[in-house]
Amino acid sequence: MTVSNCSPHPRATELADEFKSWRHHLHTHPETAFEEKLTSAFLAEKLASFGLEVSTGMAKTGVIATLKGNKGNGKRIGLRADMDALDIHELTNLPYASKHPGKMHACGHDGHMTMLLGAAKILSEAPDFAGTVEFIFQPAEENEGGGREMVNEGLFESHPVDAIFGMHNWPGRDVGTMAMKAGPMMASYDIFEINIDGKGCHAAMPHLGRDPITATGQVLLALQTIAARNVNPLESAVISPTQIFGGDTWNVIPDTATIRGTVRTFSPAVQDLVEERLKAVAKSTAEAFGCSARVMYQRRYPATINSEAETAIARAAAIRVVGTDKVDPNPESSMASEDFAFMLNEKPGSYVLLGNGPTDGNCLLHNAAYDFNDEAIPYGVTYWITLVDEYLGAR
Ligand SMILES: [Zn+2]
Ligand SMILES: [Zn+2]
């Protein structure tokens, strides 16, 4: 197999229409966390038709396909795509729009699956490398941690790899561009719920109760001092309260009020600090107003941290595909998060961004008008093929 320089692989161009039809099929049939049954069956059927060894059922709907090179034993590389859609009602009017009401591929995972499937097809036609490629299709990236489930169910015991690689489409970056860096690419994702307990009473006689509403207002403001006053200004943290509940009517001070929200950080030390301060600030502020606070703090996803050596390999592959001037070697880290982090916690690897074109017309991730850009498919397919060549090729 020859890998062309600075343009899509010729097979990826030849097969572009077929890949597009796979992507549109997946887009029409979106499925959410751990319910990706049609998706899983579609992937497994295609992968088996390429002659690959396919295993299904890990983390309920995960699919893994194994390809051994024809040049003997060697290293083992894992390539991962996510499979799930979002609970969004699609508003695109596309001919291939979602047929599942309230579900939509609004994060481009339809494109991610298509690109990895396309790479599996082309690589299986000419596996001219030494070693093994594991194609890993993972359910439930959004919220539910399908990546963690696969790791917990023994992904890397049943399908051992020396390194693991992931990719996400990125609207706002041009098609035919890529971006990656060593270190944190995405933040950790934690959630919290603070219940502030007071004593309910008549709203006209507040002195007879202990008002959790006023205390909640103070806690809400005090939480913002954690990032501003406790975290080192050269580090990053976001504390975003996103829900407030309390009270049922005009003239009653309730017993309890609730704040919920999310925390994003890049380093475990900052994550520890924010958790500790959030609990202390909530409790002591509530107490200052005669109330008490119960705090639930849950760590959902760790930060997504790319390793040095594997990111250098990913960058070398990307440069071969799109050219040096189209590879951003220092993209801004995102405060969004990604459950590929669980795989990167186990194995060295790199998570890269693939340009998906302009953000015109609400073309934003998680927007009801989003559609993955088919023009990006040949670049993503070629990146995977070239990465395998960089990692396992006889060079
Ligand atoms: Zn998403
Ligand atoms: Zn996504």
From TrEMBL:
TM region(s), chain numbering: none
Hydrolase recorded as keyword: yes
Keyword S-adenosyl-L-methionine: no
Pfam families from the UniProt entry: M20_dimer (PF07687), Peptidase_M20 (PF01546)
Domain of life of the source: Bacteria
Residue ranges constituting the Peptidase M20 dimerisation domain according to the UniProt record: 192-285
Sorted UniProt keywords: Hydrolase
Protein name: M20 family metallopeptidase
